[in-house]
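Backbones bend. To wit:
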Amino acid sequence: MITLYDFPTTLASKSLSPYVWKVRFALNIKGIQHKTEWIELVDLEKRFKELGIPPSEIKADGTPFYSVPAIYDDSTNTRISDSPKIIEYLDRTYPDTPRIIAPGTSILNAAFDSGFLQAVHKLWPLLAPNIVANLEGESSNIYRGRLEGAMGMSIEQLKENKELQEKLWAAAEEALKAPTGWFRMSDGKVKAGPWIMGDKVSMADLTLASAIGFVMITAGEESEEWKKIDGWTEGLWSSLWERTRPYFKIY
C-alpha cells in the first residue's frame, strides 16, 4: 500500500496542491492502491523528519525544504518526495501499469511543465486569497505571509486595489495565450484530446490536469472567475478537465 502525504484545506475537494494532484492522478490512472495521510501545512517539516521522508529540495543556502507531495511505499520500504521523482518511481516499480513518462521525454516534459506553469502562476495572486481563507490556524497564517510577502501588501489591500486587480487579470489572460496556442489547429480552432500524445497518457497530461484542477478547485467550478478563464482558452480547459475528471478521486 502506498501512502500519499498531503495537507488539508476546507475547500470542497480538501486537496489543493497541483503537485500532489499530479501524483494522485498518476496513481489513479495506474490503478495503484493507495491512501492519503493528511498533515497540516505548518507541521509538514516536523512530521516528514519523523517519518524519514527526504526533503523536496535543498535551497541555495543549503537548507532542506520539506513539502508535498511525498509517498511511502510499504511494499518496497521506499520514501520519496517531489512529483517527478515519485512518478518516475511509479513507472519503474509498477511496469504493468500505464507508463506516464515515455522514454527520452524528460527534457521535453520539464520544458512543457515550466512553460505552462509559468503562465498559470500569473493567476496565483488572484486565487491565493481564497486559499488563505480555506486553510486553518497557523497554516493559514503561513500562506498569508507568502502571498503578502510576494505582493508587498496585505490581502485586504490587494482586494481593495481594483486597478491592480485589473492589471493582474490582464497579465494572466496574456500569459495564457501561448499555451492555448499549442492546441490550435491549422484552421485556427482549439482542439483537445483524447490525450496530448494520442491514445496514451503522458506527463504533459498530468501537468495540464493538475494545474487546471488547481485553478478550478480554488476559484470554484461555478464561479465567474473560472468561467472567465475557461473563456480565454475557448473552452479548452473545461474540455481537458472533463477528460481527467474520472481520475479526480481521493483515497
